[in-house]
Structures are given as structure tokens and as C-alpha cells.
Amino acid sequence: MPLVCLDISHVRNLSSVRFEPSPQVNVIIGENGSGKTSVLEAIHLLSFGRSFRSHKHKTYIQHETEHCLVFAQLHQDQGNPVPVGLQRHRDGQIEVRIQGQRAQSVVELAERLPVQLINPDAFRLLEGSPSVRRQFIDWGVFHFDSEFIRAWRGWQKALKQRNTLLRRGKISASLLAAFDQELIRLGEQVNTSRKAYVERLTPYFLKVLSLLNEDLKVSLQFFQGWDSQKSLEAAVVAGRERDIELGYTHTGPQRADLRVKAETGDALDTLSRGQQKLVVSALKIAQGQLLIDMGRPLVFLVDDLPAELDANHRQKLCRLLESLESQIFITSVGPDTTDFAWADTTDVRHFSMNNGELSLSSKGLQES
Ligand SMILES: Nc1ncnc2c1ncn2[C@@H]1O[C@H](COP(=O)(O)OP(=O)(O)OP(=O)(O)O)[C@@H](O)[C@H]1O
User: Fold this and answer.
1) Mutate-to-test residue for ligand 1 from 9, 11, 16, 34, highest number of ligand atoms within 8 A of CB
2) Domain named RecF/RecN/SMC N-terminal: which ranges (predicted)?
3) What is the rounded radius of gyration, in angstroms, for the C-alpha atoms of the chain?
4) What is the pTM of this model?
């Protein structure tokens, strides 16, 4: 569901920004510190309920204001746009509204507004801990398989309870066995969904990567978190004594990972920074493409596009993004780095950002 209009209040230096983005490409240009990233941050907030820059909500609420607010109208194929809003208070309280009604949780927003972010920090997908890659997989599975969130929440709860018991110490293997049934049942479900998703995603990824750079040979390997020859039940049973010794559950879907391999070893160790950026972009675009093929349009946020990419690869990335027919927001410090020859048929809007004020730029005015 693309954004038809966006209203941002008190997010960092954006006191009040209201604009109607293109359903296709939106290019936001401005000097360092002008507030470009804050626009993307606001859209991300509306989808995830959190920022991609910091887990501390006070950092993005404008100084000396009590709360920030992001409001949008989401396009839907039939019927009127759907109003959605998120308000975050300095005391941590979060309020989500969809069509005027208070929503139970931010998950309802995430379902309506899938957002993919490509930014310099996206490298963490390769160099960060496995938890970053699990989050990447789980975001995809969440949108791919409607049963997943329930199984995932139940499994997380069971795992947390089990780890609390283990940490307290006084538990025997036989007592633990009684707690493990639910953990195993839901853990198997989580794993099956993740596996099916990665299988589905892999050809998309390979295709996208070959379009960005046909010489890059990279493969994906899903590690489920325990010996792939064993069932989760067998792994949990075999690991009980060790879990008691360690004080936590050492095997299972909580150890899953997505290993990205180049021909000669780990992608992280062999590829250049620019090549890594292409791999990460390909992973994210592949996730988006898969969703689009399922009839679920999404929003791409591309922050600081030129970082680490040469002009040729920037062009390829823009061409690919354009071909997805999604709504895209791209930020850049200068017009030269985003000067891509968008097709005549693509609705491109250029915006200038100056000290937290956003305006449709002359380029955008000529074209609209
Ligand atoms: N809580 C806050 N309240 C008010 N202003 C803030 C707050 N946090 C950050 N700022 C300011 O808001 C601006 C945010 O800029 P932002 O990071 O969005 O800029 P940008 O145009 O993306 O810059 P760059 O090109 O350097 O990435 C900065 O000038 C920063 O000093």
C-alpha cells in the first residue's frame, strides 16, 4: 500500500512536514543534517514502531516536545485511502491508530505498510551477529506466511520460560522434559516456515544479484540452528544436560543463521565493500520482489544511495528499483549522484530539504 500523503510532526528537526509523494520514485536532496534521513526514519517508524537509527525513542522525538507524530493515508486498490498514524510520547507510550481506531499493536501497521530499508548500515546484514540475519529472514516470513507470527511468539515465550528455569538452576532433565513439548512443536513450525521462505527467496536473490553484477557468484545457506540431520526434538533431548550445565538453551531455531558465501569463502571476508553493498541490496530487493509477486506492494527507503557504489552500479540499482514498480524514497546530498535517467513513464518527484523544511524542487515542478 503506497503512501498517498505523509504528515510528520516533531521527528528530529522536522517540526511539521506534509507532502504528497509520488507513488513511484521520490528523490530527496539536501545538505548534511538538513533532515533527509529523518523523513525515511519517520516512514520506518510508521511501519515498525521504531527507528532504524536508535532504539532510544527520545533521540528522535524533537527536543523540547512531548511527542512525535507520523500520519499517512495509505492507498488501497478499492475504496478510499486508509488513514494510519503513530504517536510516540517521551515517556515511551506508543499509540497506533488505523482508520480512526486504536490498534492493538504496531504489528497491524507492519502488515499494512511493508517497508524495506537500504542504507549504509545495511552492511550489518553481513557483518553483524546472526540475530541481524534472523531478523531479516523473520521479516520476510512474517509477510510471506500469515501463521508465522503466532508460532514465533509462542515459541519465544516457551524459550524465555525455559531459559529462566535453567538460569535459576534447580531443574532436572526430567522436569525440563515436561516444558519442552511446546518449545519443540512451535520451534519446528518456526523452522519449517523459515526454511520454506529461504528456499523461495534464493532464486529471487540470485536473479537480482546477476542484474546488479553478473560476475558476482554468491550463494545462500540456511543454518537452522542445530544439526540438519536431526529433528528439533532429538537435538533438544540430546542437549538437555548441557543446557542445565550452561544455564540456557544452546540449540534450536534461536541459533539460526543465513550464511552468505562467495566462491572462495565467506562473503564478508572476500568481497569488497562495494560488492558487499550490492549483495545486501540484492537481498533486500529480492525480499521486496517476492512480496510484490505475492500482490503485496511495499515501500523502499534508500538512504544515501551513492555511498560505496560507483556510478555504473548506482545506475543499475536505480534501474532495478524502478522496474519493481514500488514506491521508493531516495535521499542524496547532491543531484549529481541521483541523476539517473528515469523512464518517461515513471512518476518521479524531486524534493529539496532545507533545515527541516521540505519542498517540491523546481525539477519536480517541471516534471509534474
Ligand atoms: N531530537 C532532535 N530534535 C531536534 N533536532 C534533532 C534531533 N536529533 C537530531 N536532530 C537534528 O536533526 C537533523 C537530522 O538530520 P538528518 O540526519 O535527518 O539529516 P540528513 O539530511 O539525512 O543528513 P546526512 O546527509 O548528514 O545524512 C540534524 O541537523 C540533527 O542535528
Assistant:
1) 34
2) 6-341
3) 22
4) 0.93
